[in-house]
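Next comes one such specimen:
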Amino acid sequence: MTKPEKLLEDAGINRVNSIEEIDEGRVHTTYAVETPDGELVLQVSPEADTNSLQNCLNIYKYLHDSPVPVPEVMTPEASDFMDVAYTVVGSVPGTSVESEPSTHLAERSGVMLARLHNQTSFDEPGWLAYDDQLQVLGFDDSYVEYIREETETAIKRIEDCGARSLASELAEFFDNSYQLIEGDELVLCHDDYSPDNILAQDGVVSGVIDFDYAHSGSARRDAAKAATYFDLHGTGLGPAFLRGYREVRDLPPRPQQDRFFRAQALTAVAGHLAQNDEFPGDELRPSVIRERIRDT
């Protein structure tokens, strides 16, 4: 019996037709599971990290029967078994927007993020717990420090891969701008609302997945990050995304804030690529980052 089969057995799922590892999961190892009763998704954290898996489950439970389609939760809690952590959820129909990006799907994705933001608002930023309702736990430090740490970590990864000049420019750009984070409405943020985490079928958004980093945070930052992710997948997709968002939710332009948040998103993507030895790549070279930040 393979390890995924043993994990499924631990979850009480004994009849399995097939198990196939898929590449959708970037944080965890993800398996598509076919059973006689339907299709499931098994996510496994090799480092037995239950926190991000549980965070994702909590949001799925909260959004159940909401206007935001999410997977059905099969394991209410992230389980620790055989030195790994795992969860099982139902499979959502459709394919990732990343596989066939278009202005139409960018707009519909913007609509869906606005619906997510309209679900609830909070009085303070932070990680979330769920017990029939979402509760803010707070961050270890302030929201500003949370974003500063994320950004400085990404810059350090960019520097370590040899792009020292770019890293220095980014550090200088951000150094005196972190105060721009404060003052926004606090909502349920996905924080990784990229085309690979949005599923569509027949031109309609059919699912939103992978809420590993979801928290109470700035609606403007979450929308700006998402628009930046869409920009990286095709010309005009970022503006199309924001058009869709504004169909549902007001987002008046604030040029300084918007520039900061989009630059921060670009830096985070570059840092992720650097961590995986994929930076610089064809689509996100240092010159492209400089140009995009200048043009935002």
Summary: The longest strand covers residues 38-45.
